[in-house]
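INFO worker-7 received task bundle
INFO bundle size: 2
INFO processing item 0
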Amino acid sequence: MQRRILVLTSTYPRYAGDATVPPFVHELTRRLTAWFEMHVLAPHAPGSAVEEQLDGVHMHRFRYLPERMETLAYGGGMLPGLRRYPWRAAGLLPLLTAEYLAGSRLLRQEDYALIHAHWAVPHGFIGARLKGARALLCTSHGSDLFALDAPWARPFKRHALAHADAVTVVSGALGAKAVNLLPGLVPRILPMGIDTRHFTPPVAGASRDGLLYVGRLVQDKGVQTLLHALAALQARGLHPHLKIIGTGPAETDLRSLVQALELTPQVEFLGALPNDTLPEFYRRAAALVFPSLLGSKGQQEGMGLVPLEALACGCPVIASRLPAVSEVVRDGETGLLFTPGDAVALAGCIERMSAEPEMARSTAATGRQQVIEAYDWQDVAERYRALYEGLISARRS
């Protein structure tokens, strides 16, 4: 009989084919069904099922408010949503209470060998309160340690990290942040992965044209920097086309900026698209631009899966020089880097990528090899399987 694992998260598809939610937690969880009986506890959302099976994963979605008011999770992420709609904070206590009660009920009903909490807060903290004699694995993806850094939040994060049997982080930069928060902690760097059998290069000789952005449309992702870079290129007589894939609370403002900068003929908003449709866009783009910012309160990328997807498809990458992103995109080797928020520098990178096609091809090819060697989902899932097994054995012995 497979051992049961309980996953705590607020980032998970609300239904099959949900294109608006980053898929990485689900991608890891569904692969682990080869070895474990995987259960996920996540917030309910309007229209989603309370109980269902999704790709072999047992879904449990807890109710925390009247259905029409269950808007705290999803929709571009919990933290960006709270910054844009502060009134949503009134739902935090009901959500956390409901998650704890729902988790307690599941743990009473079934024998779970391990709790895997994605994000130290709130889920790592809740997992620490629920674990009992079970093993607890806490995984940080970035926003929990980088963005949520108010003094009141730190004791909750320390509690989660201190009570976990193991802590994984998706980048070295995030590991350093965790150690700074809890000296003596030894986090394991274990990134999320890429399906290198699905994200593949185009056929030899295929043409590439235009720029591509993939991600949530929120202030911290820096799309506004990319638009200002296009305006700078326009002044030089260059007019690269840009496809924007994604949705989020900043979309209205970004559309207004496109009009104000007179970029409407060049910029195309495609909305949220299913993850399995993205390879074709990566294969056709001349470059993927990943312009994330360093926020005023320290918020930044914890890893950067989108550049890895692009590189897996042989797509050249231009990215902002953030610590975790620089672990994936090395300037001049697997892509080009620019100072976050510097539209002029970004415009220069775009121009250089276009003017030096051999450099663009070389960095993309090197990047794809890096993805295959270090970020393939099959290897990542196997490493998590081994970690689960070790934690369960240690706890039971």
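INFO item 0 finished
INFO processing item 1
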Amino acid sequence: MAKLKYVGKTVISDTANPKQSLDLANQDYIDSLLAANMSQSAVTSRITANLSGYATQSFANSSMTSLVTPAQVRAADANFVPTTAIGQPLGPVALSSLGQISPSLISAVSTQQWPTPLYTPVAYQNVSVLTDSPLQLFTQAQPYPGYPYVLQITGIMDAQVPLTDNPTVFPQVLVREGSPTGTILAFGYGIGESYTWGNPPLGVQSTLQLGAGTEWAQYYGGTPGFGTYCTATAGIAGWNQTGGDAYAICRCRCLDPVFSTTTTSYQQVSTIIGSPANDNGNSNAATDIYVRMDDTGTYYVRCAVGASAAWLSYSLGGTEVAIGSPITGIGQQTGDVFILNAGNFTTKNLRQFQLFLRRAGTTTLLGTWNDTNNASALGTAYQGWGFGGTTSYTTTFFFTTQWFPAPVTGVTLVDPANPAGGINSGEVVILPTSLAGQTTKTGPTTLYVMLQSSDLSGAIKEVQVSPSQPGLAVVPIPWAA
């Protein structure tokens, strides 16, 4: 088809561009514009050249894939509590400007009661007490705390086991409610090992030595061959006269590996008299108690207990030297227990020696000696102990008579576990019984603190507590009635 030609009105041309009409666009005009435009390839080349060094669309698309998506943001938000939940049911509690919870949100009633602080007695016993049967130490009033309660009781007592013929007992402290026989709310049992005793046997029958000769080391002095200190009757130590009438002495050192020495220089040794000494009342025959002995038996402190007097001396491997003056007016009866303390446990005076007599259950201080010159042996090398006997003799009208010490039926060592607290001491820890087993209290009550021996068979097996380290703490615990 032939090209159409324009046959209409004359087109006014643009002076600057005569081929272009100011009124109409003809075919020639359109063709001329297309010829002047860039090709698609030229455009692509131009874009490539001008945008070189900038991110491409593919790079932008790949980078977008590592960013958090809206779905991920919504899932993470679900793990947090929105602020709109504060103060709403099951939501977080709103706090005041001071960071406090409003009292209106606490469900406790205004009369709610809480455990009262620690409560202890105003005063305890002020002297040591001794008993072999249940004995009231003191009472403690427990006021009403204002709510139903049970009591949690803890504490500590300083207890001792004094000299006794049975070394197996230990103290018991019981805290009872309402009366001396009421419900036990707390208890404390002394640990038996804290009340260590040495009670070595006097051996089987022998007229030559104490028993089999393995329990005691024996050293003789005076006139040799004029008797032996032995167990002529099984279990009883005494003098067996042989060879005539003369002065003789035998000291016996304990060899038992368990308690041949004490843990400190505080010692207590006792002897039990089977019968009074065979003595005319004027001789020096004596039952001897030895303390502060060394392993050779030549360093020691000796207390000689005669029928009417007692005296103290020491040896540093040679001649004995007297300490102080004799104690007179003693006397002896069957079953008497003579007790020598090396060191005063109460005053912590290691240089003081005390002699006690226990007769029919009553213990009496007979006398005291003080080594004021600090001359006797003292220290870890002198913590052995023992006993023995001394004979004497008198001559009247050419007749000589030998006098014997009293026979000994038992000898005992007390090794003080806690010298500061007393003889043979140990702490009794007081613990509460089960709170669930108590009767809930709705008013005031009274506590009775009791002491008793672990052996209540009726024989004299005494225990003791002292006020040196008392302690009792009582806490009322709220409990449903």
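INFO item 1 finished
INFO post-check item 1: Helices lie at 27-36, 40-50, 57-64, 70-77.
INFO post-check item 1: Residues 197-414 form a domain with the Jelly Rolls fold (CATH 2.60.120).
INFO worker-7 idle
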